[in-house]
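Q: Could you fold this chain for me?
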Amino acid sequence: MTGMPVFHETRLVGEILADADGALSFSYADEWRTRASAFPISVLAPLSASGMPPALFTPWLTNLLPEGHALTTIGRNAGVSPGDVLGVLERIGQDTAGALSIGGPAECGQPAYSRPVGDRLERIINDLPKRPFLAGTEGVSMGLAGAQEKLPVALVDGEIVIPLHNHQSTHILKPDNPRLEGSVQNEALCLTLAKMLGLNAATVTTGLAGGRSYLLVERYDRRLKADSWIRLHQEDFCQACGKPPSSKYEHNQTGPRGPGLPDLFNVAKRFLPPLDRIALLDAVILNVLITNVDSHAKNYALLISGTGARLAPLYDLMCGRAWDHITKNMPMVPA
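A: Sure. Below is the predicted structure, expressed as structure tokens.
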């Protein structure tokens, strides 16, 4: 078997193993399992277990990848098949969703950044369809799941910068969507509304880069502690249900059925404290009220620590009724 190391900051968490047929599994490092501050990589892979077998780990790992055009473009630019999960993560896996760095440790010490000046931020945004996550740029190795164009960035003294050399991002920049006029303002309004209703939601602001507007989302899986940022672990409900990203919607034209509301609440019953189960119900109700037609299983998540799991803050909230040309069908329906 060949292996690829997985780190939390500079500590080895375990190793991704690929057998002769390419099946991927995960094995915890003994030193990690015995650490007082250790956390499992998934609610499906407790530290008491040896790791994750291919049937669970392959869909879990695939959920870290971008989807659709972004994945195809990254693969083409890097000379890697989009289906080569390890090959893609080797290039963009050092700063992804959650706390893990795949392929090498996160950098400590003085952060290194690229500072877009002048109209460079606008040019970076405009080039995202051709260069998702700036993949291939020297010193840049970061990526996020999902199909929407976005870019992990850091906010330093109020300035948006690009992390280099495995230093972590602190925010996610989501540019306007030309196909959905007002998408930035729509999402900012919905997330602000959630907070005003007392729900735990990601903190956002909006900005302009030349002629492009963008949403700047504070990452809930990053926390400032003693003047330095630390990584918090998370997984989405697709991962917690053992489903691949292609099954993020409950009903798919092809492939297996995705998680529905009973599946989400089964995960909550097994792994979340009672108040968080109520918070999940509140989140589902809000998504229905605002007609968030993209509230699939990957848009709900868990925060995981050594003491257990909690429901992550809400994110990716949008009102589908704002646009006449998109479906109004909800991605999950009551049983």
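A (continued): The longest helix spans residues 274-289.
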